[in-house]
Amino acid sequence: MTTSAATTGVGFRSERGPVLIAVMLSTALVALDSTIIATAVPSVVKDLGGFAQFPWLFSIYLLTQAVTVPLYGKFADVLGRRPVMFFGIAAFLVGSVLCGAAWSMPVLIAARAVQGIGAGAIQPMSMTIIGDLYTVEERARVQGYVASVWGAASVVGPTLGGLFAEYLDWRWIFFVNLPLGAIAALMLFRGFAERVERKPHKVDYLGAALLTIGCSLIILGLLEGGVAWAWGSVPSVAIFVAGAVLLVAFVLVEKRAAEPVLPLWVFTRRVLVGGNLVAVVVGAVLMGLTSYLPTYAQGVLGAGALVAGFAVAALTVGWPISASLAGKIYLRIGFRDTALIGSVFIIAGGVLVALLGAGSSLWAAAFAAFVLGIGLGLAASPTLVAIQSVVGWDRRGVVTATNLFSRSLGSAVGAAVFGAIANATLASRFAHPPEGVGPLPPSVDATSLVLGGHADDSPAAVFVRGALADATHYVFLGLLAVAVLSVGALLLMPRKTEQLEF
C-alpha cells in the first residue's frame, strides 16, 4: 500500500516542507476568494452599481472553477503538475488584478470568471502534488492540513472582506492575493521538481468543449434555478435539456477518442465511483453548514458576525484532527471501513445540527460543527487517498480532479437545494404574517431585520427571527438527509482496494 515519492514521477529534489506550505498558500487563495467578497458586496455595489447582478460574482467564480477541473486533471497527467499549477496561479493573479481594477459590475464579473479558471487548476493540482510527494500513510494527515485552510477561510474571509471594505478599499480584497500568489509560485519553483516522460499526445478538443459547455449549463441551472428564474420556467428547462444533450454527446465522443480528456473508466470502477459519490456528499454538507450555520447563529441566536464565524471554525478543528488519525486507522482496517466510521460522525453531526433551535446555545452549534468536522475528515481523506492509491502517476491527476469536480458538483447541488428550501420556507412565512407585525419588506429581504447587526425586539423582528429559525431548521434536516446518503456511497466501494487493471 505504501508508495514512495521516488516511484511517482516526482524528482528527488522536491522539498516537501516548502512545497506543502506553497500548496497551502495556493489553496488559501482559492478558499479566501470564495468567501472574502461576501461582506464587501455593499461597498462594491455602492462604487460600481449593478445590485441586481452581484450574485453573479459568486456564481461565475464557482462555475468556471468547477467546469475546468477535469480538463486540468488530464493536462497534469500529460504535461506534469508544475506547468498546470503555475498556469493556475498566473491566471488567478491576472484575474485578481482585473478584479481590483474593475470599473463596472460586468467587468468585475468577467474578471471573477478569470479567477475561477485559475482556481480550477490550483485546487486539483494541490491534492495531486500531495499524492505525488507523500506516502499513503502520510496523505490523510497532510490533506487534513489543506482541508483546514478551507474551514479557516470561511471565518477569515468574511472578516477580512469587512475590514478591507470599511477601513481601506474593497479593491484590496483582490490585490492582497498578489504577494501570497507570488510567494507560493516562488516556493514551488524552488522546491518542487518532477520528471515527466515526454511523448506525442492527441488533444481531445471536441471532448473538452462538450464537457465544459455541458457542465457549465448544468451547474448554471443548479446555481441560478429558483433565483434568477423559476425551476419550471422555459429558461430553466432549456438549460438543463441542452446541458444533458451535450453531455450525452460528450460520452459518445469519449468512446472514440484516442486520448479522452475524461476517460470513461473513472465511472466504471467501484472504488472511483464510491469515492466520487462521497465527494458529492461532502461538498453538499459543507455548503449547507458553512452557508446556513452563520445565518442561524446571527439571525436566530443574535450573535455577531465574528462570533458566528467561530461556530463554523469548530469544523476546522475537527477535520484536521480526524484526518491525522485516519492515516493510522485505514492502514489497519482499510479505506472503506475508516470512511464508514466517518459517516457515523457525519450523521451524528447532522442530527445535532437538526436539533438546533431558537433556544439552543452557540456552544451547541459549535459542537455540532466540530462533530461534522470529525466525520468529514474521516470520510473525505481516506476516500481521496484510496482513489489515488489504485492508479499510477500517469492517471493520478485525472482521478484526483474527478473527485474534486464531484465535490464542486455537490456544492452546486447543495446550494440549489438548500437555497430552495430556505427561500420557500421564508416566502411561505412572510406571505401570512400574524396581526400586529406590521408591513414587511417584500420577499426574503425581510431577513435583513435580524442580520448584520440590525436585530431588535420589534414585533416584525421577532416574527422574522422565528421564520428564519424554521428555514434553517428545514435546511439542517436536509443536511441530515444528505449525510445519510454517505453510507450508501461508501458501500459501493470494495472493502479492499487493489491497483486497477487497464
Description of the molecule:
- By secondary structure, the chain is mostly helical.
- The protein has three domains: 1-201, Growth Hormone, Chain: A; 203-258; 265-502, Growth Hormone, Chain: A (Up-down Bundle).
- It has 16 helices and no strands.
CATH architecture of the largest domain: Up-down Bundle
Structural class: mainly alpha
What is the string of SSEs from the N terminus onward? Answer: HHHHHHHHHHHHHHHH
* Terminal CA distance: 19 Å
CATH top level label of the largest domain: Mainly Alpha
CATH superfamily of the largest domain: MFS general substrate transporter like domains
What is the overall number of helices?
16
Question: So what's the overall shape?
Answer: globular
**Whole-number count of domains:** 3
Number of strands: 0
**How helical, in percent, are the residues?**
over 70%
Major β-sheet annotation: none
Quick check: average pLDDT? 80
Summarize the structure.
The protein is an all-alpha fold. The chain has helices spanning 16-35, 41-48, 56-79, 81-100, 105-133, 136-167, 172-175, 177-191, 205-224, 234-256, 270-299, 305-333, 335-354, 362-389, 393-431, 459-491.
